[in-house]
Amino acid sequence: MQGIKPPTGFLKAFKIRFGTTPSAYKKRIDKHFVSYKEIKMNQPKIVQRDEVSVIFTRELGNYNKSSDVAWKRLSHDLNTLEKKFKKNPPSFDLMLTEKNSETLGICHDDPQVTNENNIRYDAAISWGEKEVSELTKYGFETKKVSGGKYAMVDYKGDTNAEEAWYGLYVWVEENGYSFRDEPAFEKYTNAWTNKDTSNLHTEVYVPIE
Fold it and tell me: Mean of the per-residue pLDDT values for the chain?
């Protein structure tokens, strides 16, 4: 478990305060549409995702701070698993590797409509359903992240988040898709080993129908 680092691309993404569920975001997207209509970003894709099981930790407050706190806590808890396994061995060999995981930053609330103290951010890592269920023995919270249709765009580094997030929501609106009332999230594809935030590769997922 050594080497897991708190992803930092998400911090820049929500510095401008657009972490949200699609239904809440829809109420205010029109005022951003004109200014971001000609935004330059990578070409979005429509993708189908399967439901995944995740361990997660939730932090309340401003996204810029809560995401950092949440990832540090989850990373610490994962890095102490070996000691916990010695005292209470798992009932089967857990496959907790980078290759069979996803590292997700999930935002539930729109800071423009939710009191800062009530904003919810989840730092989450997916593994197989059996692995995730077994990890409840060691104090981890678990849940499902919905599958279905998503609009997705990717970006690199920690300076292109604004364009990716705003641009994707505008693209969804412009192309006639409807938002599903599920939280959007980021997937950090090289978060386990990346030490340079300028090389962090991030995928943004917005649930649509």
Answer: 82
